[in-house]
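Structure ticket #2291
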Amino acid sequence: MKKSVWTIMICVVFLISACQAPPKKEMTEESHEVAAPNRAPITTSFINESGQKIGSIEVRASPVNGLDLHVKAKGLPPGPHGFHIHETGVCEAPDFETAGAHFNPTYREHGFDNPKGHHAGDMPNLEVGADGQIDVVVNVPNVTLKGGPNQLIDQNGRSFIIHAEADDYLSNPSGNSGKRIACGAITKEMVK
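Resolution: structure written out below.
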């Protein structure tokens, strides 16, 4: 009789422990992206070659894939413009060379049409209206806010550059998109 009581008690303890919810996992940099769509967006200003504020860019993790960038700007030349993520979060007018090269952590060539490409920071051309304004959301599927080699936020930060001309989606290093005419920087201090 004692043996069967002990067997029943062991079975009850086993069943109770098996039915309990699994322990909650600590949030790591890799798991950050799962929760990120619910967080507040990171917003920074676009400045032009004169250092004047001409708009903003709002960055948030996409609920589907990568990042969604809400770009709003005015005072730009109408037509298509190359738009890229650059490797350093510093925007010093007038030429924005402080933003560095394209964000390219996997060392690929430039351009969506390049068979060897493309950079993580390559994005579709922006189409500025006849009134010099743009208000559009751009998805960047291969970049994360934090975690992994394609993370936007690290010790260097990143910059978003609008170029004077359209990106041809092929030529190295920047698709013949011309000079840098607007810049918006994201730094690690902006992420809480």
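Closing remark: Residues 39-190 form a domain with the Immunoglobulin-like fold (CATH 2.60.40.200).
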